Amino acid sequence: MILRQKRGLMTIFIIIAIVIVVGILVYFLVRGEFDVSGIPSELQPVFDLYAECVKEETKAAIELAGSQGGYIEVPAYMHGSEYAPFSSQLNFLGFPVPYWYYVSGNGLVKEQIPSKRDIEDSMARYVEEKVKDCNFDSFYAQGYNIEIGKPDVRVKIGDEKVNVEVNSDLIVSKSETKARKDKYEVEVNSKIGKFYNLARKIYDKEKKEAILDNYAVDVLRLYAPVDGVEISCSGKIWKTNDVINELKLGLEANMGALKFKGDYYDLTKKKSKYYEIDLGERVDENVNLIYSRIMPIKIEIVGESVDDRLMIASPVGIQEGLGILGFCYTPYHFVYDISFPLLIQIYNNDELFQFPVIVVIDNNDARQSLPADFEVGGDEEFNLCEFMTQDIEVNVYDINLNKADANISYQCFNQRCRLGESISGRFVGKAPSCLNGELLVRSDGFSDKKELFSTNTQRAVDVIMDKEYEIDLELKVGGKDLEGTSIVSFVRDDGKSLSTVLPDVSRIRLSEGNYKITVYVYGNSSISIPGGKKTQCQEVPRSGILGFFGSTKEKCFDIVIPETKIEYALRGGGKGETYLLPEQLEEGKLKLNVDSLPLPKSLEDLQYNYASFEQMEVSVL
Question: For the whole model, what pTM was predicted?
């Protein structure tokens, strides 16, 4: 009986304690001092701002990746050549958009397509860097103390959402109140995953069937002379520039008219089924294909009589004696090699995903489908970064051997793995096993550094970082201030290239090293390449009885070549090589001096200026 009474009293005490605790919680919640997460409401706005900052930077990463073919960190720039005048990137409205398929300067076919995992990793790195700069100034002004740890970000791209997880200590205090949170989950509505999947389907169809190249062949045969015969005794003449311009206009109009079978365009306005491409499924997102006549293009034309001005087809008599009937024919056969960029855009009112490819016509025919060894791995591709098996040590220093902290990644083949950050100049951790991989070291205030490092044979490496200086460029042309526009480029021995246009952008970031400097100065010109008249003569059969016996006469006709104006011409510049020391760069100014060239008044003067330029030098003052 006594035991039961004790148990009853204990139950009553427990109930009373629970009521008291609940009452205290209700009291503070009513007063607004705590929210349901356990963070004092006075401090909650700081945590909300951080979460909103993560969300906004994620949106920025999505927009950047969408505008650059899935890339946030654009692959290294590769120059084109006379053979293939395309770099590895298409400059579209100021954005460097890497080609998914292109022909390199040495004529090799190249692919550079990011996997969805690549995009997720690059977005994570972007958010990691940007959230460090979240602006808490308004809270600092109110007396808040805010401590932010190093963020570790994970990104997962879905069809219509992007989920971001940020692991980062955020400690906020004010007066006697203090709170801490170390994990944030943010969801952003975005179709980048769906757009990317559709982009891959479009690309895979183009890769296997060369559908865009075949449409381009149709445009060629419709808008330019390729093969044909005309009943004519006077021959056939085309102006080369007119043919090229007509081709550009034809490509611009017809490639832009192509649609992928679906419901995203007005069926009443489409020109015909000819312009509809079947992907095997209906497309429910907007897709545009863009070629503009101002984009780079390679057009080479070969024929019996072709030069930069004229394409001429000569007349032929079928056989001797038929001149009495006035029967002659003019056959023509021109061979075209054409390459041009085509930008494919997938979009809605809020988002865009775009990627370019090179469309190729080779000897009047569409290119062959890509060889089998150009298979592109999808999301199931082997992920080297999951196999961090090698213990390594990386020590990072500046040029004075002071320790420097940096972000460290490792590149093996086409995969890049983020390793982490050095602490007090030292990183100890794991990396994937690889022969002749590269350490990628990046630190604020320093030039990015690549270091050859084989993790399967080496265990430690010292990396010396070159400090980067912001330099104000000054240019004198013939001892006088620059008039006009100048393009200045610096190419370091390790291949890093930087360029700027004066006077619009006079500041550039340089580090110690040996540089080749090239300066081009351009100014207004009034050169006119005069028009002219060219007389072309052909032997044609005489009419009447004399023609019956094979007699011919010479028939001539005039070709008028219009005047051409060159309004912008080379007015100065030069080339040079110099080693820039830290002492020079610390001054924050770099003065360049080049010689001027006379104002060209004729085509001969302009040719003289370009020939003289090769002998001119750049002085660094």
Answer: 0.56
